[in-house]
Amino acid sequence: ATDLTVCEKLLQLFQNYASQFVIILNREQSVALFEASAELLKGYSKNHCSNRVIQKSSAEVEAEEEQAYNDILCAIQLLINLGAKDFIDACSTSGEAGVDSSQVTDMIFFGLQQILPLMTQGLLQFPTLCTHFFELVSFMMETYPDKVCQLPFDLFNTLLQSLLFGMSHHDMHVAKASLYGLASMSREHLKTQALQPILTQHAPDLLDQCLQRLFSEVIFRSVVMDRLEACGMALLPLAAADLPRLSTVMTQLCEATYQKDDRLKQAMSELLTHDILSNALLNGYEGRRARVLFKDAFSLFVSKVQSFLVLR
Fold it and tell me: pLDDT confidence of 66, banded at 50, 70, 90?
């Protein structure tokens, strides 16, 4: 629909229908809903997403302004409800064949691709929209990291940049969701080298950028204290994937920002021991023990670093 009001009503209809009935739909009915939703979101994106300007008004009218973007919220909630179908069918005891997991994930990533042109920093200042968007993106990153790493580079990079923006967000829940999403992607790469095609063909410094922004925008800032555990779990697989890379990034950060502070390098060397990194992703007792040790070591590292950075 070219009229935004009509399109919003259609999105509400689809969102409400999916919320109430997706649990009882069989495979054919679910596929029909997915196809209809995809067409709706495609038309919505074409007519209302690409050239739309998002502006943040004063605090007094923030609630009214956020309500003006209710169509976007409906689109996000529709994708969340459709995504639930994968788990509903996985838990079903009816014996009927459910929707293939790949059909669900393809639908959600297609839907995200349609609404991403709207997801600017201006829009993400609205609390409700921001929270729902990051819940959806981090859920997909955590649940389907293998699929995420196989996305077309432009879509993958846009989702990753959203997480990097969200990890320093003032809202603790948004930040934690972003950090856990980043951690899942990094763990997948550490286990399967899933990001190698992207690193080879598109962005060889991608992991460097993740590390640099994680340190400079979160770990070396006071905001780290309310997202400490999530931040440590994001750092662990990034560090384990390539320790020499981390050393290079830390050297660059120190030289550019902290004037070769030897205390920072010493604290980092104490944090990243070979035994912890090599066992962190193991299953069973050894893996759990390594992650607990790293969690404690990271907490101590942050306390040390925060103390002497404050005193500079």
Answer: low
Mean pLDDT to the nearest integer, 52-60? 55
Of 297, 305, 312, 294, nearest to 220 by C-alpha is 305
- Both tokens assigned to 281: 């992703």
Q: Could you tell me how far CA 19 lies from the centroid of its own chain?
A: 23
CB-CB contact of 160 with 154 (8 Å)? no
Q: Band the pLDDT of 60: cuts 50, 70, 90.
A: very low
For the entire predicted model, the pTM comes to: 0.86
pLDDT tens, position by position, 244-262: 777 788 777 766 665 556 7
Residue 290: CA count within 13 A, CB half-sphere: 19
Q: Could you tell me which residues come within 8 angstroms of residue 35 by beta carbon, excluding any fewer than 6 positions away? A: none
